[in-house]
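FW: tagging you since you asked about this chain on Friday. Here's the raw sequence from the shared folder, copied in full. Didn't touch anything.
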Amino acid sequence: MARIAGRFGRVEPRASARAYLLGLLSKTERKNCWQLAEQAGHVRPGPMQRLLRYARWDADAVRDDLRAYAVEHFGTDGGVPIVDETGFVKKGRASAGVQRQYTGTAGRIENSQVGVFLAYATSRGRALIDRRLYLPERSWCGDAERRRAAGIADETEFATKPRLAWEMIAAALDAGVEAPWVTGDEAYGQDPQLRARLEEAGIGYVMAVACSTRVRINSGRTPVRADTVAGRLPATAWQRHSAGSGAKGPRHYDWAWIHIGTDGHRHLLIRRNRTTGELAFYLCWSPTTVTLAELVHVAGVRWSIEECFQAAKGQVGLDHYQVRHWTSWHRHITLAMLALAFLTAVAASTASDRRARPHPPARSLAPNPNPMTVPEIRHLFAASISPPAQSAARLLHWSTWRRRHQAAARHSHYRRRAADEPAE
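HL: got it, structure written out here
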């Protein structure tokens, strides 16, 4: 709050913002204005509603503070920005940007809003650092009355999702965020303009594309489908690499890469599931020569944004809002992202402290607890800001107990996964 307090000109919205953030971090089941007002001890939801709709403060300025906070607390030289979208299923037609459209949240076409997000992932943590609400062209951009009712400014024009993604990437670069790589899913990898802008900026990318994507092999005149290229590869072209550690151990896949284009910095990367044989494809470009392992690492980082969405919705109420106004949406989303970044920063700090402590004797039978996670930290923080039914020592006892059992379960999964791996 000390970091963002200067963004609020009056004490009332500043106090409401603090109460709102505490509510997002609390055990409150639904984190909307009514529930958060009750959690804060207010007699009515008016202060929370004014914070989101009428109070004078700039959500984009708070977003800038959030981005700087994230980079400061868990940024490293190897940080990777990730672009993706998530849906917010809604009822009615008054919410800004709502229409019947496909959303991966529901896995089908639903009446929903779609937000395009930028995450920042490093070895120390990951968090959402920027957001844009997608405004459909036909149903919204050309309807002045509907725009006015939802509080959408006249100067807000239609922008494709890849265009919104580039705006966020460019803003992060302008703010000094170091980004040697960018990654994203097919909706963004298929857009040639986004890829061209990244190349112009000297930013490498590993972007997922469809199997029908056509590429030129060995400077051939006729482009070939990516899945056709994969089918022609010899067995020796595939190498086993881990795309990073998951909840149950390293995520091993078979990988192949093929030079495409006229220079040595452009590749088609192919991932093959070692159990099902399912293929995934990525277009890659880098300003310098890279290894297959580096491309695999960046491809694996892309899933971090899905973890961010899961944590933001499950822990800090990213999708719990009940607002229709354009400004209110951006304000709630920004505060939820800030709450998530706070939890991630605490997790990064406790991980650093844990590495600095001496290891217990090898003869100890009890496994070391897992590192503090975002859900565990929110659980402890929520308990500490509410009148505790248990002592702090009791809370920490149960935290250690849970994390020890999580560590034992993870060890069991890793051991089973290692036993299933064929010998090198």
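FW: The chain has a mean pLDDT of 89.
HL: agreed, and The longest helix spans residues 326-356.
FW: great, closing this out.
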